[in-house]
Amino acid sequence: MVRAIPVFLRDLIMRIQRHDVSGLAAQLAFFFLLSLFPLLIFLMTLLPFIQLSQEDLLGVIRHFAPGETMQLIESNLNDIMSSQNGKLLSFGIIATLWSASNGINAIVRALNKAYDVAENRPFLLARGMAIVLTFLMIFVFIIALLLQVFGREIGAFLFTSLGLSEQYLSIWSTIRLLASSLIPFLVFTVLYWVAPNKKLSMFSAIPGAVFSTIGWAVSSLAFSYYVSNFGHYSTTYGSIGAIIVLMIWFYLSGIIIIIGGEINALITLKNKEKNFAS
C-alpha cells in the first residue's frame, strides 16, 4: 500500500502533463470570470425574497476571495445595482444560465479528457445538464448563505422546539461549521459523478471531491494570505491588479477542480486494471 502511493502520484503527474491541465484551467478561469457577475447579479436580486442583505452575500464570498478582488466585486456590484431597474432579475437569470453553463461545459470537457472519452451527448441534453448543475450551485450557495447568516437562529428554534437546553447550541455550532464544509463537497461529488460522459457510481466521485473540497479551501485561504501580505499586484499592473488577482484565483480553482477529476479517473482506471488482472 505504501509503495503504491508514489506510483499513483507519478501516474497522476503524468496525466496532468499529458492532458494539459494548466491550459484547461486557464479556459475555466475565463469562463468563471464571465459567469461571476451575472451570477452575483442574480443572487443580489433574490436577496429581498430571502430577507438577506448585500453585505450578507459579500460576507460569505469574503471568507475565500482575496482582499483586492473584493474591492473590485463590491464596486462593480454597487454600480450595476444602482443603475438597473426591475428587469434585472430576468436578465440575471438568462445571463447566469448562459455564462455559468458555458463554465460547466468547460468542466465537462476537462473531465471527459480525464476519462479519455468523447462528448457525444446531444447538444440540448448537454446544455440542459449544465443548466441543472448551475441551478444546483445556486441552490447550495443560498443554503450556505442562510446557514452563515441565520445558523444560530435556526439552531435555537430547532432545539427549543425539541425541548432541549441551550447547551446543545454549542453542538449545533459545530454541526453548522461541518455543514459549511459539506456543501462544496456535495457540489463536487455531483459534478464529478454526473458531468463526465461515462457511466460512474456516485462513490467513485468521492476521492476527487474530498481532494477538491480541501484543496480549494486551502489554496484560496493561502492565496488570499499571500495577496494580503506579499503580493502587490496593483504596483505591477496598476488599476487592473484586482482583475489579475481574480483571474489567478479562478485559475488555481480550475486546476484544483480538474486534478480532482483526474484523481477519480486514475482510481477508476487502476480498479479496472486490477479487476481485469484478477
TrEMBL record:
Superkingdom of the source species: Bacteria
Keyword Transport: no
Entry keyword Cell membrane: yes
GO cellular component: plasma membrane
First and last residue of the signal peptide: none
Topology relative to the membrane: Multi-pass membrane protein
PANTHER family: INNER MEMBRANE PROTEIN YHJD, UPF0761 MEMBRANE PROTEIN YIHY
NCBIfam families membership: yihY_not_rbn (TIGR00765)
Protein name: YihY/virulence factor BrkB family protein
